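Example 9 (inverse folding). The structure is encoded as follows.
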């Protein structure tokens, strides 16, 4: 499908195939750089000229641990925050619905949230200190906005877990199962543990690569480790926040019709806290690119 729109600077008519949506492009008439929109007749967002950084940008920890709180008190973020609130409430109260309805609602909500997360990373990486606008799309694009983020997150997680998947397959040939990871053993169970946690450790830099680079061929181990080793402590902050999101989500209680109203309200508050922490984590990943892009090998090629 072809997407048509006008240049945000000279108003020239531009057309791209829909598979390029979200990528950076340049007007052949005036040279203005912009982000290709996801729908026709939508004004594309301009890209400000950026100098390639040769040194890290200071202030990462302050931006992550202090400045992120400002997002929740900024009026321009009311709509995105209301969207997150609606998603959490919808997911919470529809959990456990009969038949396939529960699965469908969970899939739809997480698709929206995953797309929101990717946009947070992208916008934060390019110096935007506001939550992204909400685009739900229409008809076919509506479904694509749900399915695409799911595919992105699933594929990215699968890539970083390839060593674990290979080790697990080898272990199963020797009569072991994933449950054997919980045992204390210096053989294959230990290798499974190491490869599993290594994959989780590399997931933030991998999802950053996909969200900002928008090119699956950039998912290379040498690219990952080059950035992680040169900015190890800041990267650990992003990993810790994402890990905290995962732990809190696993501990978050589901809706129960038998629970009293105060208990239900407390359970809903915990689920909301998961999303607040998730926003912090995605912002931290985007800020990692903003402050330490000089350590990311593909970043220079991306800006050329």
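The amino acid assigned to each position is listed next.
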């Amino acid at each position: 499908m072809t997407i048509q729109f006008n240049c945000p600077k000279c108003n020239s008519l531009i057309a791209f195939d829909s598979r390029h949506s979200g990528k950076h492009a340049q007007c052949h008439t005036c040279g203005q750089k912009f982000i290709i929109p996801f729908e026709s007749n939508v004004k594309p967002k301009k890209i400000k000229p950026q100098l390639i950084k040769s040194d890290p940008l200071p202030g990462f920890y302050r931006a992550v641990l202090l400045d992120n709180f400002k997002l929740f008190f900024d009026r321009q973020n009311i709509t995105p925050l209301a969207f997150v609130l609606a998603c959490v409430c919808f997911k919470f109260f529809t959990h456990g619905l009969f038949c396939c309805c529960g699965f469908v609602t969970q899939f739809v909500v997480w698709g929206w949230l995953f797309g929101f997360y990717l946009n947070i990373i992208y916008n934060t990486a390019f110096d935007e200190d506001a939550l992204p606008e909400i685009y739900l799309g229409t008809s076919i694009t509506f479904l694509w906005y749900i399915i695409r983020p799911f595919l992105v997150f699933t594929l990215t997680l699968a890539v970083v877990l390839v060593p674990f998947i290979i080790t697990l397959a080898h272990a199963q040939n020797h009569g072991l199962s994933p449950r054997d990871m919980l045992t204390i053993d210096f053989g294959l169970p230990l290798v499974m543990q190491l490869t599993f946690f290594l994959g989780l450790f590399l997931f933030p830099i991998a999802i950053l690569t996909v969200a900002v680079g928008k090119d699956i061929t950039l998912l290379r181990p040498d690219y990952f480790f080059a950035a992680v080793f040169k900015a190890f402590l800041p990267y650990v902050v992003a990993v810790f926040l994402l890990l905290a999101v995962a732990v809190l989500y696993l501990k978050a209680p589901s809706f129960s019709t038998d629970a009293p109203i105060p208990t239900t309200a407390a359970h809903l508050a915990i689920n909301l806290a998961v999303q607040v922490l998730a926003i912090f984590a995605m912002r931290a990943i985007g800020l990692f690119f903003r402050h330490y892009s000089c350590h990311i090998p593909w970043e220079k090629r991306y800006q050329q």
